[in-house]
Amino acid sequence: MNSRRPTLKLSALGLAVVSACSFTVPSEDAVFGGGKGGMNSAGAINTSGTLGSGASPDTDAGAGGTASTAGTSSTAGTGPGGNGGAAAGGADEGGAGGEPSVKPKGELVNPSFEDGLNGWTVEPETPAVFPQWGGKDAANVKAFDGSWVLSAWDMEAPYTVRIYQVIDGLEDGTYKLTAQISNKPGLKRAELYAKDCGGAEPAPTTLPGAVTFFEVSLNEIEVVGGKCEIGLDLDAAAADWVNADLFTFTKVPP
Q1: How confident is the model at residue 196 (pLDDT cuts 50, 70, 90)?
Q2: Is the pLDDT of residue 238 over 80?
Q3: What residue ranges define each of the domains in the chain, with the CATH number in brackets?
Q4: Which one of 80, 129, 140, 143 has the fewest beta carbons within 10 angstroms of its own beta carbon?
Q5: Residue 214 in 3-state DSSP?
Q6: What is the C-alpha to C-alpha distance for residues 116 and 176, in angstroms, rounded to an integer?
Q7: Is residue 41 within 8 Å of residue 74, measured between CB atoms?
Q8: Closest CA to 118 of 165, 154, 159
Q9: pLDDT number for residue 102
């Protein structure tokens, strides 16, 4: 018996069926659910805004981004996906910022120079005055309090400078000023002073010329009107040096 392989023939009826069928390639919009129009951007540069979601094929528009902190409104979707989402993203007002830094009333600012020269005025400005590391492994000077000291020194040039701050918000009364000082002996002028305090101006105290930190004080400072300028007044030759740390300004009980 002869075995014969079946032969497939495309009948006219089959051709008609094939030609009658059509195939539609899905559009990008259908595949991605709402298309480019439904994809909304969140508020610009926000910390809490989220991307809007694309719409489903059966909806008109994508959802807007969630409200964000201090962000701008999200961009509305355009095109086949719809026009939604314009108002949802980031239109809310941002939260209030932090409170501005306020100088404490009646107190010295940065008395041990742990924050550099913040709170202090150097007049005239000069590179001879600078904060210096004074931690336990410091090579030049060990801080009396904390890890930093104020230093005045210039190897090549003389310098004349005041280093001070004005304290305001003080109660009227009598005060005492102290500072931890070490300095080279023999400076032309090296004084701890208080002035413009509203009362009788006390004579400044001359720095002693101590190699290690020594407490220098100025007593009987009369404050009237709530303000007082305190600081160091230096007139030094080249290579003269002064280190200062831990200033205090305290009211003396009556």
Answers
A1: very high
A2: yes
A3: 23-95 (no CATH), 121-251 (2.60.120.260)
A4: 140
A5: strand
A6: 24
A7: yes
A8: 165
A9: 52
- Yes or no: say if 35 and 83 are a contact pair by the CB < 8 Å rule: no
Mean pLDDT of 14-33: 38
Asked whether 106 and 81 are in contact (CB, 8 A), the reply is no
Look up residue 37 and give its DSSP letter.
G
Determine the Cα–Cα distance for residues 179 and 218; give it in Å rounded to an integer. Answer: 9
Q: Give the residue among 115, 203, 126 at the shortest CA–CA distance from 163.
A: 126
Say what percent of the chain tops pLDDT 70.
Answer: 59
Say how many C-beta atoms besides its own lie within 10 A of residue 108's C-beta: 18
Q: According to the 3-state scheme, what is the secondary structure of 100-130?
A: CCCCCCCCCCCCCCCCCCCCCEEECCCCCEE
Q: Give mean pLDDT, residues 63-68.
A: 43
Give the residue among 94, 227, 243, 89 at the shortest CA–CA distance from 166: 227
Mean of the per-residue pLDDT values for the chain? Answer: 74
pTM: 0.61
Q: Half-sphere exposure (CA, 13 Å, Cβ side) for 145?
A: 17
> Can you tell me the distance from the alpha carbon of 117 to that of 122, in angstroms, rounded to the nearest whole number?
8
Does 34 or 228 have the greater pLDDT score? 228
Which stretch of DSSP H or E encloses residue 30? helix 28-32
Length of the chain: 254
Give the span between the Cα atoms of 220 and 100, in whole angstroms: 35
Instruction: Give the whole-angstrom CA distance, residue 123 versus residue 137.
Output: 31
Beta strands 205-206 and 121-123, pairing class: unpaired
